[in-house]
Amino acid sequence: MYGLQVWIGALLTLMIFSFLYKDNPFYKFAEHLFVGVSAAYWMVVGVWGTMVPNMLAKIHPPLVRNVLPALATAEPEFHYIIPCILGILLLTRLITPIAWLSRWALAFIIGYTAGVRFSRYLQSDFIGQIKSSLIPIISVGDGGFSIGMTFSHIVLTVGVVCGLIYFFFSKEHKGAFGAASRVGIYILMVTFGASFGYTVMARISLLIGRMSFLGEWLGVIAGWFS
Amino acid sequence: MRHKRCGWYFNSRILIFPVSILSLIFILGYCHFPEAQEETFDILLRSEETPAPPGPPAVHDTPYDSGESITIQWELSSDDGAGKNHVTGYDILRSETRDGEYQLISSVTKGVKEYVDTSTKDKVDYYYRVRARASEFFADSSPSEAVQSKQQWYNPERSNLLAIAVILSFFIILYISRAKRGKKLFIRRIAGLEAVDEAVGRATEMGKPILYVPGIQDLDDVQTVAGITILGSLAKTIAKYDTKLDVPVSRSMVLAAARETVKQSYLSAGRPDAYSDDIVHYVTDEQFGYVAFLDGTMVRNKPAACFYLGSFFAESLILAETGNSIGAIQVAGTAQPAQLPFFVAACDYTLIGEELFAASAYLSKEPRALGSLKGADAGKVIALMFIGLGVTLETLRVLTGSPAIAKASDFIIRLVSLRF
Predict the structure, then answer these.
(1) How many Cβ pairs within 8 Å bridge chains A and B?
(2) In terms of DSSP bridges, do strands A144-145 and B349-352 run parallel, antiparallel, or are they unpaired?
(3) Domain extents in chain A
(4) pLDDT digits 0-9 by tens, B212-245
(5) For B185-365, which CATH class?
(6) Domains B58-140 and B185-365 equal at CATH topology level
(7) Where are the domains of chain B?
(8) Domain B58-140, CATH 2.60.40.10 — does that match?
(9) CA distance A225 to chain B (A)
(10) What is the helix (H) or strand (E) element at residue A115, kind and residue range?
(11) Total Cβ atoms within 10 A of residue B317
(12) CA atoms within 13 A on the CB side of B306
């Protein structure tokens, strides 16, 4: 059975890799299989991972006694009817005369998300970043004045200030403001360069993982001849 | 002397009898019940190896949280770090009645004297014991007082966060109301946006479709919302030029929102006849299944322009490279820092981070979006002021060592700390 799994995995991997040459029937087959299987998989996950435990089991637990017995004895939580109604409202898109009702659910989701994320982003992307930037430009350690740390602190402070200026949209980027903005984008580009190299290394490790899987498959084939 | 000696003999004779009886019982017990002998021996050993119990735990509802959490603190066993120094850790035991059965809920290593129990139910009495462990020997503390967890509605440690949120909200509301009153709010031109019209024009001339990818995240990601807002504006232009638009999505919620947006755009462009639900279609939630489909679509349909605006992850470079290989003009935008380098390297124009949100405001001219953007700019001015002041004070602190400057600097740092 394991050998069959390896064969299927290896052949599908090769079919996907064949796209590197050009689009071909093998790639099309793998692509359609992947899309179809994954769409069905996520639908099943949605039903069994969300609708059954988070809706049916919450609103009327005895309904799930045959499939999730651990949840069947819980007390009903009727406030789950609210998201249930919102979910049903989303489906009203399918009925043209009342399709407008689906906007209510969408508006709720977007509004709720914006509210929840506002506080989170304020902490991590605003206050947290400001606090990390409050450093002395001149660094003095135990051994006295530190040139390296001072340089690092200057780069960090200038980078943060110029980066913020680059993302300032209420003023035209001209003159000194424009120069600071350009410094900001240069610093961003240097950062992207470093990030690019780092991520490419991570991707190569993924490729190595796939290659080693193909090696495993070749091992299965070799096993037949030995 | 004789009398005394007689007396001694007399006393020893009295002792001989009970000692002999006890010895006999012990010997018989050893012969017939060896386990009892071992238990006796164990009890003797345990008395030597058993660690000193920890102090009685002090328990309280974890402050400033959303409930369902109790903090337990205890004095370390005197054999932890001192004494026999053989305590290996502590078990935290919990019961709903003081003299009931205590259940193990967690264990911590030696030297730790606090544990936060996040498995409680609000408004239920709990009692705790802490057990000091030394190999297989242990000693329990006395039970704690009863404690309940409950939710707090306000966290004073985050008052600074509230103040900053109020200030930012004030500016956002102020600018939104100005925009609604018709006052023109200046937003600088964003370079990447100039490419949007160019891309649509090119696709129209070539008679080829435009591919729009609003990221792979759901509507609860603000980048997806920005991507769909830009799609609305773009769809209006596309409808006017009668160019073909293709929007494959990977989330059902995004499907609903994108269809609604595109439909509105076609209506407002006066081309409801050109709209079809097939313009926006669902593919799969699976990240790489979606990417495989997009790659196949790109090489088969050869769109003249590809837009990737939203939240992207590992698929960013795959998409951008495929788009590049078919010669499409590509405009990308995301706030995912790890994916920006790939878009910058492989696309013609990239909206970096907040430019994505600015672009959606710039294109839609929506008062709310414009007001939010201007409010965010006000936030940047506040951030720059804090940074300027904080860095100056920190530098002066290093240079002068003045306590007054140190105090002022600490205050500024406290203002932007997560625990005020």
Answers:
(1) 175
(2) unpaired
(3) 135-226
(4) 999 999 988 889 989 999 999 999 999 999 999 9
(5) alpha beta
(6) no
(7) 58-140, 185-365
(8) yes
(9) 35
(10) helix A102-121
(11) 19
(12) 30
